[in-house]
Amino acid sequence: MAASSRRCLSLFIKLTTTSIAIITTRGLPSINAFSHRLSPRASSPLSSLHRTRMMMSSSATVIDFDPSPTIRDKATSTILVGRHAALSDVIGRTDSYVSLFGFRPPPAIMTSMLSSIKGGNAGTAKSHVEVPTVGPASPREPHIVSLCSVKDSVSRNNHPLSLHSVSDMVKTQCESQGTVHVICCVEKEFPCGPFGNAIGRAFPLFNRKTGSGKDEEDGDNDDSGASGEEKGGRVVHVTFLDGDGKIVKDSRQIEAAKAAAEGVRLACRLVDTHPEELTTTAFAQECHHLFKDIPTVSIEEIVGDELRDRGYGGIYNVGKAAVHPPRLVILTYEPEENNDADTTATSDSIALVGKGIVYDTGGLAIKSKTGMCGMKSDMGGAAGVLGGFLAAVRLQTPLKIRLLLCLAENAIGPSAIRNDDIITQYSGKTVEINNSDAEGRLVLGDAVAHATKHYDDVGLVVDMATLTGAQLVATGKTHAGILANTLDLERRAVDGGLASGDLCFPLVYAPELLKREFASKVADMKNSVNDRGNAQSSCAGHFIESHIDPKYKGEWLHVDMAGPAWKADRGTGYGVGLVMALVGAPGFTERGQ
Q1: pLDDT for residue 196 is more than 80
Q2: pLDDT of residue 133
Q3: pLDDT tens digits for 419-478?
Q4: Is 441 a catalytic residue?
Q5: Which of 89, 169, 352, 379 is the most exposed place for a label (fewest CB within 10 A)?
Q6: Across 90-220, where does the E strand assignment appear?
Q7: Phi-psi category of 179—alpha, beta or left, where left has phi over 0 and alpha has psi -120 to 50?
Q8: Which residue intervals of 301-434 are DSSP H helices?
Q9: One of 367, 477, 516, 567 is an active-site residue; which one?
Q10: Is 479 helix (H, G, I), strand (E, B) or coil?
């Protein structure tokens, strides 16, 4: 190494050490109610994440799914969303206008608005409509009516109601204040639950704006001119219409939509939260907060040096250089035996595994200054499975579910893992590190080894991760790439994606052809491929698969959602709906009465 390079490195280490010292003095305090293991520092009455929840409670948009006969009179604007043909049917039923809108908009205006959207195509239309008054009543403000039309016909690899478009349209057409009535045309065959996913995604919770100017919202509301998406006082009330134009009142479907929206908004909030606030400690606190009053859920943790001592070399080594320790958080949901919900024909439990890299610098294989931005989203897999797990618990899913969150920060420091180091994973296999920026597979390898070694009742293991940039090349920004060890599971996952709106598509499954990419002269395997042009995303999944316990004979599904987890600098909540579909959350993908 040249002298100038050594001087630069020395300066970098000094700066890094100084930065770590500063972070230590400003880090996240713990919540008194939790175990001391949750924070390496002295406790304080409130954590930053808890303060975040308090801030949001007074300013965030409220979403309500309960059928209400009075919403039509409270609403200051209405959004009607559905396929073009369904919108035409609703608009044609002029006798139902009062029951939907609280007054009778001129049919000519409604028809003209729909006509402005070319038949069968996607598009929006908005108009201010005068609200008539009776007698001496004070004049009312004009009512804002928006039509959001999605395509009547889509390809076989899209949800029939284009739920991704629904999210975008509702977000751009929704007024920033007041009571907004969103009417969703689910027609005769589509369940309401996945619409909860789509609506929840349109209204993210996390915001640190001071509200000093409407132009600060650029990009968040696209071209609508709406601003201040989290200004106080906005209520969004969602009503579902069936194919006959009647309001859907089936409680199972309504509860599923609620749970889905809650799970998606949780996942979005976690992904959007900056890494100074969402540390591994804070993430664990979030889990305790969510389930502290739910007796069917228990939580255990393996933290810091205990991971090293018990052999979890992947999670430990990835996170050991960070201020907050790495941790494996394990949540177990045991359904009540007297649960009245329908059960599937299996007694096997499901293990969900989430990659929770709260920030990814790349480690010593450091990312560029632009490539590192947005890496707060590298815990999107953990956020997705946590949101799906929460929704399944809320709906009292009659299936035992375990959730394993691999939480670590891939940080830089004197103790950071180096390229050329050799680690031993929980599976007992040794891994030569040839890319410290390929850390997700290391933490997931430990978790799938744990799940398949210790849980005899597990019949399906699902790991979810923002794992590879190559996934975007393989399946795009809307579809996750999946790797399944059986054809039946692959088909179930694709069907679950189509039903939930969390779309996915198969990657090449060929371990006998692809595992050779990890060949090492000195260890069982390397952690990054030799040839980046040879099905990278499949290879990464097979690396995780190689750590499954040899005695495990059940199914395994890998979900690489690097693209779908993030859109326009916001988390999307991807994974919540897919998890709900895979575990059979009651009412989510079922059409009731």
Answers
A1: yes
A2: 77
A3: 999 999 999 999 999 999 999 999 999 999 999 999 999 999 999 999 999 999 999 999
A4: yes
A5: 89
A6: 123-129, 143-150, 179-185
A7: beta
A8: 305-309, 313-319, 380-394
A9: 367
A10: coil
